[in-house]
């Protein structure tokens, strides 16, 4: 037995040495590429201030010659010089163990993984899944720290297997068995005190005590960024301390101006066969056009291009200047070598392309390989993440503008080509050329082809500079990721990393990613094919052309007009006091405006059927979904069941912390019953299935993986339903009620609120910056114009970045694999939004004509004689005049009456160490408000091609 263990130890040691060698070699390669771009690792103790432009995880040898995980941080100084510094930070994961067994498990793991673990620490965190956690109970966790991520992943495999087994055993467990195991563990601990190696301790498997594993799948660079509060796009002062001591990194929020990184935007033109897509194996690169910080360059391949191209200018608009220097190279090898040499000469921080991940970079890489040039070795770029991967480089970023267009530009799907984007965003018509003509033009009209080639580089560069650059680096200041990832990841992933950052701040342990249940059964025994919630309500009510100068027939409801007359004072008070924050006593002309509205309503009441010119409005709810979340204190962890409430100390008969809200569930299920499903399962257990690998033995049903079993069950059940029921799906709608805990830890709601308020701040600052630009243009001071425009772009990009994340909080909770996942929450948000718009429609239908219902607003026409805008004069210090839209005020009063949360709990004092419980105050909350856009001159609603149908959102 001893010799076997020694052999295993030696094998593991050899494997570890190999891993160390590979990691060390990789680290040296990375450092060599970084040096090519001017990023040298600083080791002196001099203090430097720099703008953090990029981060990457790496592995380096520490003073003990051991490979350790670290984070490379790439800095840019104000004078343009660059450096990198490295922070050694141990990756870790957290374990939840059975009550009272953490010491034994820690001792066992320390011995078992003595060569792989750095340390084991006992910590406490808030766990929102813990029963009765509101009473102040904390989750006890074991924090396992490792020298590097590969060591952590090896140990994690064992721990994951143990957790999976324990979970399956737990499902079959009873309360009696739990009591038995608890008494057994007590006996074990008692025996353990008698001496090492005595008693039943020999036979205990301590893996059985591991209940859950947390925070094991957080990417390393995200982990370090969250824990050390390090973000790209921010200024820091850094001082290294030598050895393995981490550098002192101090944020510098006082520095606002951003440095100007070297940006290279490029585009290639290639040969191609008629009616074929370019093939990198046979075709050649005939031109590379690129811009570096506003200066254009063009390299031509004279083997394809018939004559030398002279330097020229391509400036589509005065603000998009493009002077091009041309290099005429003898052949394709010369062209590629010139491009690579120029890159290493200017050392760009950022490479910009348009669909470069899937065309430009792979084409250049393949053509370079033909001439024995390794693109990774030459300029550091290579494909990452397999077949569908992106082309990335460590010291320089590759930002593909197409990713921004798809996710953040809000352009329709058909307008994602570079030409269409240039038209809509840069407001000019780019040069267009038939791809079939390009090879002919290379011979007959090289100058025209050169003009076309550079037009793409100019469009890409200025699109990036105007929209993508400020946006991505604004997001980088709040999201713990590198800019490359921020551009390419979905908004749900950005939202999750932001929530992880906020959860860490308030000491909340992250939940694990949601895992969907295989072949889930409904309460009445049907297998669910899919389940979701009913989304927002969108409806097209009319089609045609509506103009403000063409009279329209209205048929008003006198009862509704009477109701409005009775509520005039209440509506105006709500608009002035609640929305504007001005006391009624400060308003000078309140009675005059009130009587003016009453007389206008009386005229409408006397003649309800009228032909008059319409007023076209769009009444929409500002940030509807985030405000519904905030008003009702909605968050995934606050969706509670009766079992959660039963375990809670605050669950008393007079408690007001439970708020019940409805949502619409929609499920698609197979029509077969539970008995039929079980018969099919029994039948499958008697059959044999294909081998795991060619030539292997056939497998029984229980030998298949759980996913394969579920697939076979579903396929067999679908076939059965097709024959027996003549259909494979039945759709069912249900109105369900969920309980929202109003006392739950509010970190999610606080994050949403902070984002909403910050976005409003940036919107206000954008208005101020726009006014400053106008003033600067009038003064004619070039320096002031540039500075003012820079501030305008900065604040506008910040408010856009916050809007992007703010709109993701609602959709994120229904994302597959989300850490904070909740279908009821998403359903409640949608149904509440739908009810608000439906209620608004009921009012508008009785005083005007609704034209179209959007997810968060309503397009409508009202009679011109309906009360519209009114100005109130006040004695208030800040607001001397108030402009109030009466139709808007009516809808906001309706929202206050029907959608206010009367039981919003605010935490006044948290649980204290002396045993005093938390204290909450209860108040009414409603932050849902309509905003009025208009009046518009005209609205065109196109008709559908099919009879009886209307086009939505057109």
Automatic annotation (TrEMBL):
It comes from Anopheles maculatus. It catalyses: DNA(n) + a 2'-deoxyribonucleoside 5'-triphosphate = DNA(n+1) + diphosphate. It is found in: Nucleus. Belongs to the DNA polymerase type-B family. This is DNA polymerase epsilon catalytic subunit. Gene3D superfamilies: DNA Polymerase, chain B, domain 1 (3.30.342.10), Palm domain of DNA polymerase (3.90.1600.10), Ribonuclease H-like superfamily/Ribonuclease H (3.30.420.10). DNA polymerase II participates in chromosomal DNA replication. GO terms for cellular component: epsilon DNA polymerase complex. It is an enzyme of class 2 (transferase). Signal peptide: none annotated. Keywords: 4Fe-4S, DNA replication, DNA-binding, DNA-directed DNA polymerase, Iron, Iron-sulfur, Metal-binding, Nucleotidyltransferase, Nucleus, Transferase, Zinc, Zinc-finger. Residues 1-20 are annotated as: Disordered.
């Amino acid at each position: 037995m001893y010799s076997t263990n020694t052999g295993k130890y030696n094998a593991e040691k050899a494997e570890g040495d190999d891993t160390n060698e590979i990691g060390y070699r990789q680290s040296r390669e990375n450092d060599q590429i970084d040096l090519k771009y001017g990023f040298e690792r600083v080791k002196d103790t001099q203090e430097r201030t720099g703008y953090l432009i990029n981060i990457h995880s790496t592995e380096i040898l520490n003073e003990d010659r051991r490979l350790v995980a670290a984070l490379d941080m790439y800095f840019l100084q104000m004078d343009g010089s660059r450096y990198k510094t490295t922070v050694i930070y141990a990756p870790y994961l957290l374990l939840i163990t059975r009550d009272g067994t953490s010491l034994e498990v820690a001792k066992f793991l320390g011995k078992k993984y003595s060569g792989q673990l750095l340390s084991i620490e006992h910590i406490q965190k808030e766990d929102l899944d813990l029963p009765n956690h509101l009473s102040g109970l904390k989750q006890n966790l074991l924090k396992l720290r490792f020298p590097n991520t590969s060591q952590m992943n090896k140990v994690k495999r064992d721990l994951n297997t143990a957790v999976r087994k324990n979970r399956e055993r737990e499902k079959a467990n009873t309360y009696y068995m739990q009591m038995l195991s608890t008494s057994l563990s007590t006996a074990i601990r008692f025996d353990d005190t008698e001496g090492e190696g005595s008693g039943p301790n020999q036979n205990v498997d301590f893996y059985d005590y591991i209940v859950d594993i947390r925070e094991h799948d957080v990417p390393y660079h995200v982990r370090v960024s969250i824990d050390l509060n390090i973000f790209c796009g921010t200024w820091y002062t850094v001082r290294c301390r030598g050895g393995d001591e981490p550098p002192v990194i101090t944020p510098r929020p006082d520095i606002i101006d951003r440095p100007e990184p070297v940006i290279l935007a490029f585009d290639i033109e290639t040969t191609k066969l008629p009616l074929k897509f370019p093939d990198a194996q046979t075709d050649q690169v005939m031109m590379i056009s690129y811009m570096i910080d506003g200066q254009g360059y063009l390299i031509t391949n004279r083997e394809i291009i018939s004559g030398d191209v002279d330097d020229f200018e391509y400036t589509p608009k005065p603000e998009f200047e493009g002077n091009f220097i041309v290099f005429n190279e003898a052949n394709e090898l010369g062209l590629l070598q010139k491009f690579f040499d120029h890159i290493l000469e200017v050392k760009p921080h950022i490479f910009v392309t348009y669909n470069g991940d899937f065309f430009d970079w792979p084409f250049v890489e393949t053509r370079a390989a033909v001439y024995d040039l390794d693109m990774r070795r030459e300029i550091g770029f290579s494909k990452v993440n397999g077949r569908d991967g992106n082309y990335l480089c460590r010291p320089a970023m590759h930002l593909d503008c197409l990713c921004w267009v798809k996710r953040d530009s809000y352009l329709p799907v058909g307008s994602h080509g570079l030409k269409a984007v240039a038209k809509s965003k840069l407001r000019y018509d780019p040069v267009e050329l038939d791809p079939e003509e390009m090879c002919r033009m290379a011979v007959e009209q090289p100058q025209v082809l050169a003009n076309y080639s550079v037009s793409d580089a100019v469009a890409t560069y200025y699109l990036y500079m105007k929209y993508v650059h400020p946006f991505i680096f604004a997001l980088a200041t709040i999201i713990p990721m590198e800019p490359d990832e921020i551009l390419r990841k979905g908004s749900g992933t950005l939202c999750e990393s932001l929530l992880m950052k906020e959860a860490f701040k308030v000491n909340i342990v992250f939940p694990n990613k949601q895992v969907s249940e295989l072949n889930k059964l409904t309460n009445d025994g049907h297998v669910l094919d899919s389940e979701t919630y009913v989304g927002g309500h969108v409806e097209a009510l009319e089609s045609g052309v509506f103009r403000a100068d063409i009279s329209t027939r209205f048929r008003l409801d006198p009862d509704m007009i009477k109701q409005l007359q009775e509520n005039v004072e209440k509506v105006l008070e709500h608009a002035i006091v609640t929305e504007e924050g001005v006391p009624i006593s400060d308003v000078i002309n309140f009675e005059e405006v009130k009587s003016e509205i009453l007389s206008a309503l009386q005229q409408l009441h006397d003649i309800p059927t009228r032909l008059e010119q319409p007023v076209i409005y769009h009444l929409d709810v500002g940030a509807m979904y985030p405000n519904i979340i905030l008003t009702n204190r909605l968050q995934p962890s606050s969706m509670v069941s009766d079992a959660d409430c039963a375990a809670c100390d605050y669950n008393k008969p007079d408690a007001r912390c439970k708020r019940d809200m409805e949502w619409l569930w929609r499920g698609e299920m197979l029509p077969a019953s539970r008995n039929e499903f079980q018969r099919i399962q029994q039948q499958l257990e008697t059959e044999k299935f294909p081998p795991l690998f060619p030539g292997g033995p056939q497998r029984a049903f229980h030998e298949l993986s759980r996913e394969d079993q579920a697939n076979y069950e579903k396929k067999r059940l679908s076939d059965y339903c097709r024959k027996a029921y003549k259909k494979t799906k039945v759709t069912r709608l249900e109105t369900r009620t969920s309980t929202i805990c109003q006392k739950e830890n509010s970190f999610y709601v606080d994050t949403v609120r902070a984002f909403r308020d910050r976005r409003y701040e940036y919107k206000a600052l954008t208005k101020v910056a726009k006014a400053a630009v106008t003033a600067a243009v009038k003064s004619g001071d070039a320096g002031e114009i540039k500075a003012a425009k820079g501030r305008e772009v900065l604040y506008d990009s910040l408010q856009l970045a916050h809007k992007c994340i703010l709109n993701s909080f609602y959709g994120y909770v229904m994302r597959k694999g989300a850490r904070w996942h909740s279908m009821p929450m998403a359903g409640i948000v949608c149904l509440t939004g739908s009810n608000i718009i439906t209620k608004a429609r009921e009012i508008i239908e009785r005083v005007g004509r609704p034209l179209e219902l959007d997810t968060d607003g309503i397009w409508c026409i009202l009679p011109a004689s309906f009360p519209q805008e009114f100005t109130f004069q006040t004695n208030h210090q800040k607001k001397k005049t108030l402009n109030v839209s009466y139709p808007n005020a009516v809808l906001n009063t309706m929202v206050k009456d029907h959608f206010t949360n009367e039981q919003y709990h605010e935490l006044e004092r948290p649980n204290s160490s002396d045993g005093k419980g938390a204290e909450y105050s209860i108040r009414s909350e409603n932050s849902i408000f309509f905003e009025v856009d208009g009046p518009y001159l005209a609205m065109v609603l196109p008709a559908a091609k099919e009879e009886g149908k209307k086009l939505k959102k057109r």
